[in-house]
Amino acid sequence: MGEPNEGGVTLRALQRTIEAMYGAKDAARGDAATFLWLTEEFGELATALRSGSQEELALEMADVLAWLATLANIRGIDLEDAVNRKYGLGCPGCGKSPCTCDPAEKP
Amino acid sequence: MGEPNEGGVTLRALQRTIEAMYGAKDAARGDAATFLWLTEEFGELATALRSGSQEELALEMADVLAWLATLANIRGIDLEDAVNRKYGLGCPGCGKSPCTCDPAEKP
């Protein structure tokens, strides 16, 4: 899934940015309290999806990403490695891209 | 936030990978039904955070990322642009990195 690029925001860069910005506060808060914040943002995402503008929706998605990066930082998870392991070789269910799983089933 | 890299997973690459893998199914399902799947994964993330192994936690984070990318694809949102707009110039609250906002306040 990786590719050479000139300036794209990698998952690793996102984690580093969030670490620099919030790392001390995040470590002090811990994972359970962080999950509360992530959940609050997730709720705001639902609102924006239901009735927000494109810009509001985009910014709520950015917030969910940022808080997910925060949680990954606190728990020592590398999001790029995780995504590569789960999705790097095709759909985790059928192994293909495009996926050929039954749409009713969870991939 | 962007930086030159050799093979990192950018948010744009993630969206493209998910689009190739699931785009047709995602478009057919639509945003509300997709949000149900995202929510299911979010619940699994809570479980993994509470009692899972590091590997389980990493894979659930990957799933949340994948379903968020799916939702962004369906709604025509570019996650990189969104993240750059919200967090590209420092904390959205105080403008700094490290952030100097009151920890009790939402950034």
UniProtKB/TrEMBL annotation, chains A, B:
Q: Which Pfam families match?
A: MazG
Top-level lineage group: Bacteria
InterPro entries referenced in this protein's UniProt entry, alphabetically: MazG-like_dom
Q: Where is the NTP pyrophosphohydrolase MazG-like domain?
A: 33-85
**Which parts pass through the membrane?**
none
* Name of this protein: NTP pyrophosphohydrolase MazG-like domain-containing protein
Species this chain originates from: Paludisphaera borealis
